[in-house]
Design brief:
By secondary structure, the protein is α/β, with parallel strands linked by helices. It has helices at 12-24, 35-45, 61-71, 86-94, 107-137, 145-157, 174-183, 202-210, 227-230, 246-258, 284-289, 295-301, 318-332, 342-349, 356-370, 378-384, 401-419, 424-431, 435-445, and strands spanning 4-8, 28-32, 49-53, 76-81, 99-102, 164-167, 192-196, 235-239, 260-262, 269-271, 275-280, 304-307, 339-340, 375-376.
Length: 452
Amino acid sequence: MSHRVLIVDDEQGIRQALKQVLEYEDLDVRVAASGGEAISLYTEFRPHLVFLDVKMAGLDGLETLTRLRDLDAGPQIVMISGHGTIATAVEATQRGAFDFLEKPLDTDRLLLTVRNALAHAELVGENARLREAAESRYQMVGTSPALDQVRELVAKVGPTSARVLITGDNGTGKELVARALHEASPRRDQAFVEVNCAAIPSELIESELFGHMKGSFTGAFADRAGKFEQADGGTLFLDEVGDMSLPAQAKLLRVLQEGVVTRIGGAKSIHVDVRVLAATNKDLESEIAEGRFREDLLYRLNVVPIEVPALRERLDDVPALVAHFAEQLASSAGVPGKKFSEEAVRRLQQRPWPGNIRELRNAVERALILASGKVVAPGDIDRLLPSTDGSAAGSGGVHTFETFKQEAEKNFLVQKLREHDWNVSETARALKMPRSNLYKKIERYGLSREPA
């Protein structure tokens, strides 16, 4: 599909000459003789690029530029004039023009501007699509009172610079709350940097957060900026902060107090402007009592607490979540698009969802892939998902004691891995099982972490 170009000039000769050159480049070209005609044609034609004369009778080019920008900020607008001045060019740029060309137009310069403007228009459109996709992915879906309370807190706290501690079970959507806080803040156009403190070995967490200098330890082959430096001007989200080692906690406390970081092996302090959001599924008061978490750090992080409700506390949101995941998976994950019958959704609402939103999304994806018809029916839910008592459902059920033991062990391991956010070391420690044995069982049963 060719790009659409609108030419706006009150001189017929200019309009026709430009039209001829651009149509030769396989562009779809329309012309307008005045600003008013351009505005009328603009909403119908939806051009990717506009050439707009500055001096026109009636509505001049600069005023037309402002009105076109009010209609749609996406298309690129190039001003053309035989009486150009620096002041006019600056004003046009301030009003949103992409470039400014002087008459008579040089064909090579014209075509170069066309290529650059259309490439920029495509980039702007792609960025808009990516932002829309990201907003959809990280959208908090539902209208339950429990979720509305979270939204109210986000609306109040987001625009401030206050630190927030987000608590809740695994899979409830703590990251979504953190991203919503970032989007509601003046920092929304800056970086959002996430660190999963439970997934990084304790000996590497300090390097990850604060950076290191070349040669400061084995494997430090080059200087490296830490997450605090990467998030400078934006937001740093410390997920599972309760799993951070005590030495790293001490350094984190200093950064929060003084606003400076020092790379491992470095002597220079680096000032950073970072808003810190933290999340955990642990009871930090208990962790403090056990000597695993610093009380003074909790006070620094927990300026405003937000508790994310478990899915069992907001089952009214299940229909909206099912529809959201079904649409999202069909558009981005290559999963067949199917509808869920009302009774199938009711079956999903009757489940306890110990894995919360992650478990529901996984269930929706499984049903979309494995349901035999075009509509996911109640029977598909009963057949494809484990029953609420933890035993395996499926065609024919469990026929032998050995099969029952295997299914029970598989379900037990999945639940324990979820409880520890799929941290194999922590899960093995909790089960008092050698880590190598746990890895073998994960491989045997084909266990994998559900998509976030």
